[in-house]
Amino acid sequence: MKKIITLLAFLPLLAACDDLFEPALENNRDIEAMYQDPSYAQGILANAYIKLPYATSPNSDLATDDAVTNENTNNYLRMATGSWSASNDPTSRWQDCYFCIQFINIFLENVDKVEWAADERVQTMFRDRLTGEAYGLRAVFMYYLLQAHGGYTEDGKLMGVPILLSSEDPDSDFNHERATYAACVEQIIKDADKAIELLPLDYVDLKNNADVPQKYQEIGVTEASTYNRVNGINMGGLMTARIAMAVKAQVALMAASPAFSAESGITWKQAAEYAGDLLDKMDNPWTLDADGNTWYDNAEITNLVSGANPEEIIWRGSTADELTLEQNNFPPSLYGNGRVNPSQNLVDAFPMANGYPISHSKSDYNEDKPYENRDPRLTHYILYNGSTKLNNGQAINLAASNNYNANATNTENGRSTRTGYYLLKLLRPGCNPNPQYNTAQRHYSARIRYTEIFLAYAEAANEAYGPMGTGKYPYSAKDIIKKIRERAGINGEGYLDECAGDPDKMRELIRNERRLELCFENFRFWDLRRWKVDMEKLNETIRGVKITDNGNGSFAYEELDVEIRNYSDYMYYGPIPHSEILKWSNLKQNKGW
């Protein structure tokens, strides 16, 4: 209080000294400053890039039937076991997405006023590209908002989120109503289409002047070098038309799914075509990257230049030498914390190498040797008893008596596995979390992969045309799943042929392939909900395995229940944040929350 009184006493003296405050005022730049400063203008849009809503670790998977965590304070563990509420929602996208949409809208309102270049031709190209980026980014953030917060209200209407197409200031009316789900989907597709119109498919350096797009030749851009200045390879990593096409495919798949299809305005046929449109733009159309299912540990990562994408990747984060994932998820014996523990439920979902589910009479599954002759993806994605993936080629022992590597009966320091399994996918075996070495390797996050789009096409095509039918493009759902399973190393088509005669069986096969290919990449939580699976499936008890070392080179495996899930029937749809409902009377909450 004495300090406040002293300050007040000196204010009259300071009032006459305006120039004392000029440096501070100059540091508070207003919007108009961007008109003559392109770097400042791009910085406004950069706020959206900084907060892109793509996770780099398998967070939401911990709240599905694919995994649990040994970290007792984890928000997704609490969520899955009964503590999910509108006030405690780790999946919420509300604050970050609207924060970014505000900056995007400010940018769009001012982009035409910025002097991007003295050359009017270059000015036009910069304006087009940056405007397209903004529209594409707004589509991304609206998609994630709709995914997390769209749902049915108490009056039975399928609602989305408020659509904000202009920036807000202190005098704005912030009491927005939610738009319908269909209106939100329509707006996302409209923004994505605008991005596709304005942006290049990819950022590449043109070699020939004749390759300059016609629309820019018409305004006098006749040199490839001039075009490359704006849309060349140095811009790699920014929003492109290809990425915007992927966002359209993503939102259409979600909207056509059982949880939303009644009122979304999107059909399975549209979803198939949006995915097919993108697959047809591949350098080698409809061709899967041969090692795309191990994108996180391929040799190409080491020398991946800035902005360049491997064949599997549509959009990725930057590469960096990191060790965090390995520190969190390696077994304790290898100096990790073993945080993500894959479930027996997921392990059982991997078929045999001949393609048959382990429960099928033709599978040749051996309960005493449960990991032999299995789908090779199991070896890549999950560390199981006897795995040699991490331990310098030595088989790792996960028996309950084996101290740090132990499963559910030994949870010393909350570090041992609860299920008898550890995570392998996303990790790089060459890393060494031993504090004596702390050896890191290159990592990047895959924001959108081609495999995701192939699976989206297969799912939508099966629903629209049946397992073997085709529409706009000459590929059936069966054709795509055959490609995916062949790449995985499955050496038989008997079960695929069995499913091809029945759309329901093919649907389950496609969903299972999606589960395996995209596991631990934060898809499963949302897939289960958009499919509107039975509540029994949503609340499926998570199982693990207790492993006993028989001492003669053999092991005994005993299944056990690990975690009971507690979701209610209204939790197919996430909540609007409770804090927002308290503030704004026009916001209606989703039913049940």
Describe this protein's structure.
The protein is mostly helical. 39% of the residues lie in helices and 8% in strands. It is built from 22 helices and twelve strands. It has helices at residues 2-15, 22-26, 38-50, 75-83, 94-110, 120-149, 181-198, 214-217, 224-231, 241-256, 261-264, 268-279, 324-329, 344-349, 377-381, 450-465, 477-488, 494-500, 503-517, 524-530, 535-538, 578-583, and strands at 67-69, 151-152, 158-159, 313-316, 320-322, 340-342, 382-383, 422-423, 441-443, 446-449, 542-549, 555-563. The strands form six sheets. Strands 1-6 form a two-stranded antiparallel sheet. The protein has a two-stranded antiparallel sheet with strand order 2-3. Strands 4-10 form a two-stranded antiparallel ribbon.
